[in-house]
Amino acid sequence: MKKSKSWIALFVLSLTLVAVIAGCGTTAGADDIGKTRTANDLEMTVTHVETLNSKNDKMQLAKIDFEITNVGSDEAGVGAGDFVVETKGGKKREVDGMHANNFGDAIAAGKMLRGSGYYEVPAGEQDVTVIYKPVNGKADQKATWTITLPEK
């Protein structure tokens, strides 16, 4: 009888430990903020994400900060319009063109550009994918980041 209680206690403890580890793993592992991706001779990092109010009550504004370094030998142009945000249903949201603070510029070889892109996504949306999809240039080279939008 004593062995039976020990096995039950061990089983319950094991299940609890597995649940705790699985719960922690999904949150921490699902976010690519701070991770660098390379495409088209550009090293790109999503450095920070913020959620802001939108003029539309059914939407929210995702402010995504980028750091981009040109590792190629030629000047390269990049801007917020070269990135899209894909939401749960697979819908791709392009840059909010009405926001005056969207970044974009030519980057000389070996130089870095920092800036923010603003993307309107449905209110309450949290898990999104940021996709580098250049407007001009080599469309075959893409990069993606899975990020979690913070609550407003």
Kindly list the characteristics that best describe this protein:
152 residues, alpha+beta, 1 helix, globular
Q: How are the strands of the largest sheet arranged?
A: 1-2-3-8
Helices and strands: which structural class? alpha+beta
How many individual β-strands? 10
Binned strand content? 35-45%
- How far is the first residue's CA from the last residue's CA? 54 Å
The parts where pLDDT drops under 50 for at least 5 residues are 9-29
How would you spell out the order of helices and strands? HEEEEEEEEEE
Describe the structure.
The chain has 152 residues and is of the alpha+beta class. Helices cover 18% and strands 43% of the residues. It contains one helix and ten strands. Strand 2 and strand 3 (59-70) form a beta hairpin. Mean pLDDT is 84; it is low at 9-29.
Summarize the structure.
This protein has 152 residues and is of the alpha+beta class.
Helix/strand layout:
Blueprint: H1 2-29, E1 36-39, E2 42-53, E3 59-70, E4 76-79, E5 83-86, E6 92-93, E7 104-107, E8 112-122, E9 127-132, E10 143-148
Antiparallel strand pairs: 1-2, 2-3, 3-8, 4-7, 5-6, 5-9, 9-10
